[in-house]
Design goal:
With 230 residues, the protein is an alpha/beta fold. It has helices at 11-14, 27-30, 33-36, 39-44, 46-62, 67-78, 93-97, 155-164, 183-189, 216-227; strands spanning 4-8, 83-87, 102-104, 107-114, 120-122, 141-145, 167-171, 193-198, 210-213. Helix 6 (67-78) packs parallel to helix 10. Bound molecules: adenosine-5-diphosphoribose.
Length: 230
């Protein structure tokens, strides 16, 4: 039985209308990372950070899965081996497409976290600095997303999965942010066949044995059909 591990990035959600980070019009061309995606930025101006994530939460709520998300859900449902998605994305489009074996290593927009007591609950559409934590009552609520300088989630499950993957695929990620940027190299060293799906060369392309250039909604659907011998 072969294990497939798939890393996804913002590029898989681009055709669902959600912004990527490092493309010319990307989120990091419109906002400074240090202002909206670091603990220091949140401490400095929590209202600005909540606004940034409130906007992204509203956009994600309107977005629908595209053919790439749907193909991965089909693969999980019909493939004879195990399929694990490790996503850097904080949208819920993999789950909306029907994928269940998904690890959100950078957290999720629809989660809220109290940084006083670590309580987690479903995030309301709009979060504000004065919101009180439902558990401890403290005004210390934040989006349950991982910021730069923080440790990604699910590292205890990710490394073993990379060690035993037969196929490792990276879809729509620029290979700029570690540790995810090194997953292709790690999986390849451990014997996986590595496949990259991107519209252009990424910073990690050299780590991959097979490349599919083009929009993920087309290339990933074609790849899944081949894997399922459709
Ligand atoms: N199909 C396939 N790939 C695409 C598509 C598409 N339709 N559109 C864009 N891409 C590719 C781009 O070429 C780029 O390589 O998706 C990649 C998106 O890269 P980034 O914007 O850097 O996003 P990502 O790699 O997910 O960023 C990783 O950085 O800022 C942090 O936490 C943030 O999770 C994010 C992490």
């Amino acid at each position: 039985m072969t294990n497939i591990v798939i890393l996804t990035g913002a590029g898989i959600s681009a055709e669902s209308g959600l912004g990527t980070f490092r493309d010319a019009q990307g989120l990091w061309a419109q906002h400074r990372i240090e202002d909206v995606a670091t603990p220091e930025g949140f401490a400095r101006d929590p209202a600005l950070v909540h606004d940034f994530y409130n906007t992204r939460r509203a956009e994600a709520a309107k977005a629908r899965p595209n053919a790439a998300h749907q193909a991965l859900a089909r693969l999980e449902n019909l493939y004879s081996g195990e399929v694990l998605i490790i996503t850097q994305n904080v949208d819920g489009l993999h789950e909306a497409a029907g994928s269940r074996n998904v690890l959100h290593m950078h957290g999720q927009l629809d989660g809220a976290l109290c940084h006083a007591c670590d309580h987690r609950w479903p995030a309301p559409p709009m979060m504000r600095p004065e919101d009180a934590c439902p558990a401890c009552g403290g005004q210390a609520t934040r989006p349950d997303v991982v910021w730069f300088g923080e440790i990604p989630y699910h590292m205890d499950r990710i490394d073993p999965a990379l060690n035993t993957a037969d196929i490792f695929a990276a879809i729509g990620t620029s290979g700029n942010v570690f540790p995810a940027a090194a997953y292709g190299q790690h999986a390849r060293r451990m014997g996986a066949h590595t496949v990259e799906f991107n519209t252009q060369i990424s910073a990690a392309s050299r780590d991959f044995a097979e490349h599919h250039r083009g929009p993920a909604s087309f290339t990933v659907a074609q790849w899944v059909d081949e894997l399922l011998c459709v």
